[in-house]
């Protein structure tokens, strides 16, 4: 193919046919499939790029899990965005407390949450030591309301009856 020439992808079908006068011939059909073929190539390239990003993400996840396990740390986050924009009869604190959270195995272990238990901030705050609960809730709500980058603090949590764990939350 010379530079500047257009490449066309063609698909063809042919079938032998014998006429009544015993002469053999082919009946064929060709069609231009260039657009389809170019789309397939683009899709395969996109799929390969996506698989590469997913592999990198898996590696990053593995490295994070390793770092967290070495530091004896756990991670939790909101499983859905906190919807502040939609009008509601619920106050900001109620909206926040009822937001579902996702917690990794270490957090669930530290605070004695069942592996498959549905969690909310309300349930999480229920494990904060009674003497710390008001301060933690107020500061956490203030952090979220002001869209601050991180909540920092230290407080006590009751993991099981009679067991208290001191938690330091940092960026």
Written overview of the protein:
A hairpin with a 5-residue loop joins strand 1 (10-18) and strand 2. The longest helix is centred in the first third of the chain and has 37 residues, at 34-70. It contains 5 helices and 7 strands, in the order ββαβαβαβααββ. The strands form 3 sheets. Strands 3-4-5 form a 3-stranded antiparallel β-sheet. The chain has helices at residues 34-70, 92-97, 105-110, 121-125, 130-145; strands spanning 10-18, 24-32, 76-78, 100-103, 119-120, 153-158, 164-169. Helices cover 41% and strands 23% of the residues. The model has no long low-confidence stretch (mean pLDDT 81). The radius of gyration is 31 Å and the shape is elongated. It is of the alpha+beta class and 171 residues long.
């Amino acid at each position: 193919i010379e530079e500047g020439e257009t490449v066309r992808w063609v698909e063809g079908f042919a079938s032998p046919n014998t006429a009544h006068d015993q002469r053999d011939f082919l009946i064929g059909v060709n069609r231009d499939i260039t657009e389809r073929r170019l789309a397939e190539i683009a899709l395969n390239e996109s799929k390969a790029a996506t698989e590469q990003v997913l592999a990198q993400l898996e590696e990053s996840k593995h490295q994070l899990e390793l770092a967290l396990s070495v530091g004896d740390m756990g991670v939790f986050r909101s499983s859905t965005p906190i919807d502040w924009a939609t009008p509601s009869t619920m106050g900001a604190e109620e909206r926040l407390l009822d937001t579902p959270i996702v917690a990794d195995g270490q957090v669930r272990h530290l605070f004695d949450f069942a592996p498959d238990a549905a969690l909310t901030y309300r349930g999480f705050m229920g494990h904060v030591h009674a003497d710390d609960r008001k301060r933690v809730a107020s500061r956490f709500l203030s952090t979220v309301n002001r869209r601050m980058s991180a909540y920092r603090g230290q407080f006590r949590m009751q993991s099981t009856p009679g067991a208290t764990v001191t938690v330091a939350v940092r960026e």
